[in-house]
Amino acid sequence: MQDIPEGLVESPYPLQEHIGFYITDWRENYARFELPLEAFLMNRYGILHGGIHSMMCDTAMGFAGCYTGDPENRKLAMTLNLSTNFLGQVTGKLLIAEGFRTGGGAKTFFAEAKISDELGTLAATGTGVFRVRST
User: Does this model's pTM top 0.85?
Assistant: First the structure.
């Protein structure tokens, strides 16, 4: 786990606080979030809801493309396209979302994500296209 520079990540926003995910690593072209798995995140079959996979892909990829290393120079992005591929079922107790910026320019970037658990089970992958918002 990498130390995130002081002040780079603000307090959790309402959805993040409600769902319970948090950032554990953030650096150029990379972000990692973790989510303890709770009963309220499961679908009616008792397995993790696919929307959680997609939300975590979206979040990790968006952050991966917005790292500046400077709390005074924040970058925010909005999702233009998001695709999630469901590969397997998590069996652990912690969901791990890793996002990787893969290309793009100053205004639009491309990213990939992988969703796994602490046991190494790969559950989903994602791709996305993001637009850097003007502040």
Answer: yes
